[in-house]
Predict the structure of ABC-type phosphate/phosphonate transport system, ATPase component.
Amino acid sequence: MLQNALSTPLFSLNHANLDIGRTRILHDISLEVHAGEKIVLIGPSGAGKSSLLEWLYQQQAGSIALCPQASGLVDVLSSYQNIFMGGLERHGSIYNLWNLIRPHIADRQHITRLAADLGIADQLWKSVDQLSGGQRQRVAIGRALFRQQPVFFGDEPVSALDPAQSEIILKLLIERHQTLLVSLHNRRLALDHFDRVIALKHGRIQYDGPVSGLTSDALDGFYA
Ligand SMILES: Nc1ncnc2c1ncn2[C@@H]1O[C@H](COP(=O)(O)OP(=O)(O)OP(=O)(O)O)[C@@H](O)[C@H]1O
């Protein structure tokens, strides 16, 4: 906490409002996000979690690995090609184009390892329209991991996975990013893997504080 008070925040909002057209989506939002924090966003459907993630993402898109709710995968391309797209900004267009047609050995090895970590090694060369919802979600996570950024933003990134997979994938995301801001509806994952909770309701922050001391029932209360 003291360290946070002294460091410059990565993200900062001070009594800010977010309007889309004439509609106010987020009201009077004040928060800071510091490097190293693992923050879970909770709240009922429509509370404003996706809007807050998108708003903060727009502040520093270049340094964030984003896994949005709508995965944005390209159906006709393979899992490999979709994951590779997470790293497009690291190279020029000729390298990228060539790699999409004939994968470069180093990228191929890297993405093959990543796919194995995500449990989709056997799906790597299939077009993603042939995959299940959970497999597609892991491809989208692979694409975010392949961005290799210090900050991860995820909008319900493990919602299509079974409990055991959710646990494994969330641990992987936490291991590979310094700072995380993730929306989840799963109370157990929220309590076990994050150190700060931001609870939203009707576009306002109703709680922003440490996870320690909170129970599953307390989290349920934020959905009441
Ligand atoms: N482009 C838009 N134009 C107008 N209203 C919008 C727009 N996008 C979102 N909203 C509204 O903003 C509110 C917050 O939506 P948001 O998607 O951020 O909620 P959420 O907490 O992520 O919900 P969920 O858990 O269902 O994903 C909702 O009332 C939604 O209808």
